[in-house]
Structures are given as C-alpha cells and as structure tokens.
Amino acid sequence: MRKILLVDDEEYIRRLYAEELSEEGYEVVTVATGHDLLRKINLSQPSVVILDIRLIDYDGLELLQEIRSRYHDLPVILCTAYDTYKEDPKSFAADYYVIKSFDLSELKMMIGRALETDSSIRLTGTY
Fold it and tell me: pTM for this structure?
C-alpha cells in the first residue's frame, strides 16, 4: 500500500482528504504542523507528501526547500488555496501544484503521476 503524508493545519481538510484518499487505497498519515513534518517523514517513510503552503507555524515553501535538501527524490505536491504562489520560484521545487478543492480529482491525478514517477526512483535521505 502506498503511503501519503498530508501536511495541513486545517483539521477538516486533513479529515476530508484522508478519508477520500483512504477510499482510493492509500495509507494516509496526517500532520498538522510544519515542525512535525520532517520527523514524520523519517518515521512513516511516505511515497509522496502533500504540503499546504500557508501553515500556522511554518512557511510551506521554506519547508519544501528543507524537504528537497534532505529527500531529493521524495515527490511533493503543493496543495494550497492560493494560486498566487504558483509563479514563486520556490514553488518550482515541487513536483506538482494543486489548488485546494472539495473535488479531489486533480489532486488524485497528481498523486498518481507522482507515484508513477516514483516507482522507478529510490528515495534518498536518512530514514
């Protein structure tokens, strides 16, 4: 079973996305804060990370840079309510950029693409 690590500070988003993605057959681990994310990557060894940009305790784009410096090949999908960050050079480090929606079709499609790409790459970094 492929594991998704979802980082969002909004509880209802974590619950909704976790429920829908679990129904698709993924194991979903959720984290509410950016500070917990790096530790959780080590513990859960996810296949993909879904990362909100505006977290209550952390700048998601800075967190993306930290993920990239430690886990070069770990697929990251930025999932945010704001399209204004799409042109931010820091967001280019993400594999995909998705605008939050209650219709998760686009997010599910990007997860599928990220996992297809990941299937031929071994994750690097310290686990």
Answer: 0.87
End-to-end CA distance of the chain: 18
Domains detected in the chain: 3-114 (3.40.50.2300)
Angstrom distances, CA of residue 91 to CA of 36, 103, 115: 20, 22, 19
What CA–CA distance (Å, rounded) separates 50 from 79?
6
Quickly state the pLDDT bin for 119 (edges 50, 70, 90): low
Among 63, 69, 66, which Cα is nearest to 34's?
63
Q: Note whether 2 and 48 are within 8 A (CB).
A: yes
